[in-house]
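hey m, so remember when u said the tokens were messed up on ur end? i reran from scratch. heres the input so u can diff it against urs
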Amino acid sequence: MTKIAFIYPGQGSQTVGMGASFLEDPVSASFFTKADEVLSIKLADMMNEGPQEHLTLTYHAQPALLTVSSMITERFSRLGIKPDYTAGHSLGEYSALVASGVMTFEQAVETVHKRGLFMNEAVPAGEGTMAAILGMDAVELEKVTNEVTDSHGVVQLANLNCPGQIVISGTNAGIEQACIVAKERGAKRAIPLDVSGPFHSELMRPASQNLAKVLSSLALEDAAVPVISNVNAESETAAAQIQDLLIRQMYSPVRWEQSVREMIDLGVTVFVEIGPGKVLSGLVKKIDRSVKTVPVFDLESFEKAVEELAK
């Protein structure tokens, strides 16, 4: 029997106009209204009109992406289409938690806004960054990052995305040196990323401590649909464990390849990517070409997905 996973993208997928094609429906439009009310900022205007550079700020991008992903998930739910598992890439894990009933949308949108502020405050702008390393396996790359951390400053594996694509995170000096050493040891490419901080590295521990206080104030529910955690790539349902993993997620690597393989081992054959872009669909295909990917980012792709899933 076919099993379905709903998967949710993280930062970098945001774009002005995302979700706009759903807004003629009053229930869908209410997600934009609720986000504005909860956050007391004009997030909906930013999402609809831009400018892109404002939308891309981490404390705007995170609630904006969660709003669109949650809105589309609700449309599926209304039609009786529900997943067997959920997962999200970094920020996307919060969209998965809303879909699985661990958090309400209102709880999640406020939490990720604060998460973005904490991440922004943890490391002063310009003092930390990330880079994508292509064509090197995790074991060899971790040897590089450990050596460089000892000599140039913190750098570590941050996103294990798919075979041959790993993102590293750390201080500017650490990342620069790690890129040089990785290429010397056989990496095909080392690409600096245009990001505002060293996410999923030890430098985010101060942010994780602030996030812990926010999460402890929420009444989280056990998951109605199992969530695959970024931190351990395992199926989780217990609210207390999920809360602990969300805190650790801030400074731990996103084990995306392992998470996808776990879902496939659990019987998932269809991955529905819910939110702007097709980044995760591409990663899933690089991990296992035999599974089906269904990206859903506007009303047209939603309607196609409904037809596809009805089969």
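this time it looks ok to me. Residues 3-122+203-310 form a domain with the Malonyl-Coenzyme A Acyl Carrier Protein; domain 2 fold (CATH 3.40.366.10). if urs says something different then somethings off w ur setup not the seq
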